[in-house]
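Researcher: Quick test of sequence recovery. Tokens follow.
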């Protein structure tokens, strides 16, 4: 493997994260929350928004390999716990904060019901808002829990991301020392696993519950690691660095999604998109790295987690405040206006959540003597 260096932040991947997060929001809000808008009547692009999660998994594998390949090149040792501490500091503060918002809102709804009926609703032991589901969410195990989405439903993918973190430091040295042929076989194996999942689910990668979610997350995370190795080798740079290649990949992805093509085809196209984005330093990179898209990428995690709460709170407000329990009964213009208001609320909340909870919580949890050694190992490289 080449020892070519590539220090620093991979700038063009940040806007991709932001676009992917907004794509998920639009998918949940228009296709699922307001199905009477019928976005699939015009395009399947929004309907395929769940595939943004697959892009997230690949981006995570790529970025973490970029940051930590020097740390875990030969062995893991006590650096493992410093790594986990850093990753928990990245995920958990916002996850916990939004989860507590859900719990507080659920308790407020029950208090309103108590005021209206005189009896306090029983605390559920089963279902999406049960005590056991809350425990699973607190320990970030909800992606493996039962056959339902519970509490902050988008956070199922965060639990799978954490599962990938648990094995990443052990897998990285092995992958990094492998020959090019062995890495190619690993890539084929990862794609074969996704193919088997797609075959078993009638070409539906939208798997979000139970252990089979690992068959979605782990191969894609591994593909991100392998993509970074390919990027470091520099073999594909002459082809992938051109603006024409970037444009071609984007058009291919949009056509696939617009026509509702096979989910599995999106995975290799996402791989090409990641490689083209990091290799390009021309006009395409300039278009990606405009300030609004960079900001959207910075707050992407906040946007992703908060949008579930905005939907949850809106549902309760419509039901308790306006007596609207069937969103399908709303006129299309009302649905569109409400959807835009919800998206706006998410964006307005994402900025402060990023600054105060994500960044602030990360710094708070990262402080400590055990983190110092890993800080030196990743100096000069931004970890997201």
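Model:
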């Amino acid at each position: 493997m080449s020892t070519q260096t590539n220090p620093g932040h991979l700038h063009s991947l940040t806007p991709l994260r932001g676009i992917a997060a907004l794509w998920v929001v639009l998918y949940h809000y228009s296709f699922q929350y307001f199905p009477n808008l019928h976005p699939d009547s015009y395009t399947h692009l929004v309907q395929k928004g769940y595939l943004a999660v697959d892009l997230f998994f690949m981006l995570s594998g790529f970025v973490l390999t970029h940051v930590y390949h020097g740390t875990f090149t030969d062995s893991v040792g006590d650096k493992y716990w410093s790594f986990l501490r850093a990753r928990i500091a990245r995920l958990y503060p916002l996850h916990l904060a939004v989860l507590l918002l859900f719990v507080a809102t659920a308790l407020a709804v029950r208090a309103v019901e108590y005021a209206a009926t005189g009896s306090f609703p029983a605390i559920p032991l089963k279902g999406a808002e049960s005590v056991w589901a809350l425990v699973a969410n607190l320990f970030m195990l909800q992606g493996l829990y039962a056959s339902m989405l519970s509490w902050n439903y988008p956070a199922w993918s965060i639990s799978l991301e954490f599962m990938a973190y648990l094995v990443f430091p052990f897998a990285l040295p092995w992958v990094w020392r492998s020959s090019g042929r062995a890495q190619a076989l690993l890539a084929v194996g990862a794609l074969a696993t996704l193919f088997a999942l797609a075959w078993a689910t009638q070409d539906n990668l939208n798997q979000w519950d139970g252990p089979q979610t690992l068959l979605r997350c782990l191969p894609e995370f591994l593909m991100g690691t392998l993509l970074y190795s390919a990027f470091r080798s520099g073999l594909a740079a002459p082809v992938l660095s051109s603006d024409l290649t970037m444009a071609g990949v984007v058009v291919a992805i949009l056509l696939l999604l617009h026509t509702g093509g096979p989910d599995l085809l999106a995975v290799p196209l996402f791989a090409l998109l990641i490689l083209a984005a990091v290799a390009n330093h021309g006009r395409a990179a300039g278009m990606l790295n405009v300030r609004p898209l960079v900001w959207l990428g910075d707050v992407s995690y906040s946007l992703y987690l908060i949008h579930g709460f905005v939907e949850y709170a809106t549902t309760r407000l419509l039901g308790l405040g306006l007596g609207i329990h069937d969103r399908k009964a709303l006129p299309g213009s009302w649905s569109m206006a409400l959807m835009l208001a919800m998206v706006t609320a998410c964006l307005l909340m994402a900025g402060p959540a990023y600054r105060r909870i994500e960044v602030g919580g990360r710094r708070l949890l990262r402080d400590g003597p055990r983190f110092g050694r890993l800080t030196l190992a990743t100096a000069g490289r931004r970890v997201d």
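Residues 106 and 129 are 8 Å apart (CA to CA).
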